[in-house]
Amino acid sequence: MPYQDIIREIMDIQGLSQGKLAEALGVHQTTVGQWLRGKKKPGYDSILALYEKFGVEPNLLFGIE
């Protein structure tokens, strides 16, 4: 599953808008939008925050099993 879909799934499950997810991760809302469109990949700090706050394994974000 592509990282964009994983991020969308987190947003759906948690009931988060792009703005609320951005706030939770300490990034700007446009950054989340770029992730969702596949224009940008989450950086190290964002990957760590996704893991700490939502339990998303870093390898899962990038399709590594």
Helix content: 55-70%
Q: In angstroms, what is the radius of gyration?
A: 10 Å
**What is the CATH-assigned architecture?**
Orthogonal Bundle
**Which stretches of 5+ consecutive residues score pLDDT under 50?**
none
Strand-and-helix sequence, N→C?
A: HHHHH
What structural class do you assign from the helix and strand content?
mainly alpha
- Helix count, DSSP H or I runs of 4 or more residues: 5
The percent range for strand residues is under 5%
Q: Biggest sheet: strands, sense, closure? A: none
Q: In CATH terms, what is the fold-level topology?
A: 434 Repressor (Amino-terminal Domain)
The count of strands amounts to 0
Distance between the termini: 11 Å
Task: Give a quick precis of the structure.
This protein has 65 residues and is mainly α.
3D structure, described in words:
15% of the residues are buried. This protein has helices spanning 3-14, 18-25, 29-37, 44-54, 58-61. By secondary structure, the protein is an all-alpha fold. The protein has one domain (3-56): 434 Repressor (Amino-terminal Domain). It has five helices and no strands. Helix 2 (18-25) crosses helix 3 (29-37).
